[in-house]
Design brief:
By secondary structure, the chain is mostly helical. It is elongated, with a radius of gyration of 41 Å. The longest helix has 11 residues. The protein contains four helices and no strands.
């Protein structure tokens, strides 16, 4: 309706019985402001003017493999004697934990020897 000539606009207004161009700017109620406030961004490594390469800003390149803080097993130095040497022997003899009851030894059936 806004692109029609003045004669066509007046003819439509006459046939409609009202001014159709009066409410054109109010057609969309949610209109954002023309001036937006500047964003509040935290200052980081990307705000430098020089020496700001993409490879140094990429977070995936800065990741490293995990660092071992403490060893899982305690080891004794060669030739050293410890007072709790019996506990080291008992930890080495432990069997791994399996879920459920202990497995039975499988035996081959005697009545069908060719299976």
């Amino acid at each position: 309706m806004a692109t029609a000539t003045r004669i066509i606009q007046r003819f439509r207004n006459f046939l409609a019985g009202r001014n159709l161009q009066a409410k054109l700017p109010l057609r969309y109620t949610e209109i954002s402001k023309r001036t937006q406030p500047p964003p509040r961004l935290p200052v980081g490594p990307s705000h430098k003017f020089a020496n700001n390469y993409y490879c140094s800003r990429d977070g995936r390149r800065e990741s490293l493999p995990p660092i071992v803080v403490a060893a899982a097993q305690k080891t004794l130095a060669a030739g050293a004697q410890a007072g709790s040497s019996g506990s080291a022997v008992t930890t080495a003899e432990k069997k791994p934990v399996t879920p459920g009851p202990a497995l039975k030894k499988w035996e081959i059936s005697k009545d069908q020897p060719y299976l």
